[in-house]
Amino acid sequence: MKLLPLAALLFASFPTFAQKAKPTENLVQYAKPLVGTARMGHTYPGATVPFGMVQLSPDTDTLSYELNGKYNPKVYEYCAGYQYADKTIVGFSHTHFSGTGHSDLGDFLVMPTTGPLQLNPGTADQPERGFRSRFSHQNELAEPAYYRVKLDDHNILAELTASNRVGMHQYTFPQSEQAHIILDLTAGIYNYPDKNVWTFVRVENDTLVTGYRQTHGWARTRTEYFAMSFSKPFVSYGSRNLSKKQVYRGFWGRFDQTKNFPELAGEQLRLFFDFKTTAGEKVKVKMALSGVSTEGALRNMRAEVPGWDFEAVKRAGQALWQQELGKVVIESPKRTDKENFYTAMYHAALSPTTYMDVDGQYRGLDQNIHKAEGFTNYTSFSLWDTYRALHPLYNLLQTRRNADMVQSMLAHFDQSTMHMLPIWSHYANENWCMIGYHSVPVLVDAVLKGVVPADQAQRALDACVATAHQQRYDGIGLYEQLGYVPEDKSGASVSKTLEYAYDDWCIAQLAKKLGKADIEAEFSKRAQNWQNVYDQRIGFMRPRLADGSFRPRFDVLSTHDQGFIEGNAWNYSLYVPQDPAALIAKMGGEKKFLPHLDSLFTMHLPDKFFAETEDITRDGIIGNYVHGNEPAHHVAYLYNWTSQPYKTQARVRMILPKMYRPTPDGLGGNDDCGQMSAWYIFSALGFYPVAPGSPEYALGSPAVHGATINLENGNTFRITVKNQSDKNVYVKEARLNGQKLTRPFLQYADVVKGGELVFVMAGKP
C-alpha cells in the first residue's frame, strides 16, 4: 500500500478548523507533564499524543498490589507508575492511566543497560543489584510528546516519543561490548504475582519481535499485542521464564529456551537483546500496540512510524499538541497562568484513549473483534469523575471526538450481557469501579447539545433507560422499590441515591426532548429520590435502613461507613446539581443554606478524617471543601442560586491558586483522567457546567486576562476581561454581545454560535 508522509498521516483525522486559526505563540512550551507526578496527582510524565493509544513513560517502581496476602497501601502511590520523589527508574512501559485512584496497565517494560547482564530489577536502595538505574531530575526533561532522562548507572541517555499507536525509544549508549535492551513482560502497574495469565513471544528475525500478554487485574480479561522493532540487529538474545513450576509442560524441555530460542511462552517472561555499541551510538526501538493481533500491531507500526527518524515523530507529535492546545488561546502577563492553563489543557486531552487499529478493528467487551464503522473507538472511561466537567468540555472543544466517545459507549452497551452502558471501562473490560450510571449524563448532554447526530438520540435514550433499570447492579432494585438505597443492604447508600437521582433527571430531560412523556414522567419522579435521604431534623443527607428509619449511628464529618463514598455528609448534602433551588428550599431557605455552604470552606477537619481514606489528604482540602475529590466540584458555584453570587466569584478565585500550581506537587488530588484539569479550564475562563444535561453554565470569576475559544464549527467565542487583577476577583458586570446579563448564567447555545462575553472586574462585591 502507499504510505503517506508521517506528519500528513498523523494530521489526517483531525478537524481542519485549527489549521485555519493557529495561534502564533508556541503553546507546547507551557504544558508541563511533570505537574501532578508528586504526591497524589498520579499523572505520568512520559510521551504521548492527544488521546493516544500509547503512553510511553518511565516507571520508578513496580510495587506489588499484594503484601503478605493483603492489599499493600504503598502501591496507591504508583497508579501512574511514577513518583517524583523516587531516585531510580525501573524501565519505560507503554500504557498508563493519568491521574486515577486505582490502576492497571504498565505493559511491555523496556530498559537499556550496559555491563554484565542482570535480569532482575534490583531495589530502590540498591539499584546496582538489578537493571534499574539512578537518575536525577536535573537530567530529566518532560514535554508533550517527548521525554528525556539520563540513566546514571548505565551512562545511557534515554529519549521517548510517540505517535498514536507506536512508542519510539532512542537510547544513546556509551562504547560497550555488553549493551543490552531488556523487555520485561512480568512488570505491570498494580501488579501481583499471578496477574499475568499468559505471555507469548516470537523472535521473527534479528530486528523484529512480536507477542502478547494477557492479564487478570482491574480489567478481568485484558489482552494486549505488540510488535517491537530495533534499528540495528541484535547479536544475541535470550530469556528467563519466572513462571511457577507447571505440572505439565509438554515436550518443550528438549530445547534450551534461555538462549537464542525464537518462540517463548509462559506466565512470567523476561527477555534480553545484546548489542555491541560505539560511544554515542543511538539504538532505536519502536513498540507498536494492538488490542487485536500482532499483525494489527505491525500494521499500526508500518502506517504510523515506517522509518527511524526520531525527531520527525517528535515534531509531528508536538504539532498535534500545538493544535489541541490552540483550541483555547488565553492572555495573561504571568507565565505561571499560562503554564497552569495549558498543563490543564494537556491533561484534559490524555484520556479517554484510542482503542482500535489503523484499520478500525478493536477488541470488544465480548472479547470478539469488531470494526468501528464511521467512528473512532475509545477506551478508559472514568465516568464517575469525567461526566462532571471533562465531557462537557469536550462538547465545546472536542465535539467530533465526544460524538465518537458516545458511539464507543453505545457499542459497549450493545456488547454487554448486562445490557448496561459503561460504568468504568478500559481495554475491552468493565471493571465496575465507583457508583452511579454516569454514562447517562455524558450521552444526554451530548445529544441535547447537538453533538451526537439526531438519528442516534433514540438509541441513546433506550440504552440509558435499560441501564437505569438493571436491578442486579449496585442497589438499583431496592432503589426502584423504596425510592432510596438502604444502607443495611448496600453500602455508600446515600451517595448512590443522590447520584442515581441526578442521572435519572438527565434521562427525563432526554425523554422530554424526544417527546416520550411516559419515560419523562417516570424519571422525573425518580429524580426526586434525593429527598428520601434528607433528614430534616438535622439538616443533612443521611443513610436510611430498609425499614424506612434513618440509621442512628451517624457522624456528619466522617467518610468511613457513613453512607458516602469519597466524601462526607457535609459536602454530599449539597449534591443535587439538577435542582439547587429545591435543595435550598429543602434545607430551610437561604437563612440556613448559606451558613452551611459558607462553613464548608472555613471549618477545620480533625486528623481522623484523613486516617480513614487514602485518596483524601490535606493537599486537596480547603476547610471541609474536598477539591481533591469530585462530589463537591460544583459546590462553589451554588451561590449563584442565592442572593450572594459574589461568593462564587471569591471562592473560585481562592480555589484556583490553592489547588493548581505548575510544579510536580501542583495538583491538590488525583487528576482523575482530566476531571480536575477540566474544572480548572472552565473556572479560569469564568463559567462551569454545574449540571451536565442542562443548557446552562454558571458564571464564576475568570482568572485569565482574555481568551479566544476556537470552536470546531468554525466559530470563535471571545472572553474579554476588564480591570483584571489578583485583587479584582468580583464581577461588577457581565455583557454577552453587548447585552448586560441579569442572571449569573450563560447558555451553551450562545457560546457555540460565537460571540463575546465581557467581564468587568472589581475589588468589592
Automatic annotation (TrEMBL):
Transmembrane helix listed as a keyword: no
Keywords annotated in UniProt: Calcium, Glycosidase, Hydrolase, Signal
Origin organism lineage: Bacteria, Pseudomonadati, Bacteroidota, Cytophagia, Cytophagales
Name of this chain's protein: GH92 family glycosyl hydrolase
Pfam families per record: Glyco_hydro_92, Glyco_hydro_92N
Keyword Hydrolase: yes
NCBIfam families documented for this protein: aman2_put (TIGR01180)
Domain Glycosyl hydrolase family, residue spans: 297-762
Signal peptide feature range: 1-18
Cofactors required: Ca(2+)
Gene Ontology terms, MF aspect: hydrolase activity, acting on glycosyl bonds
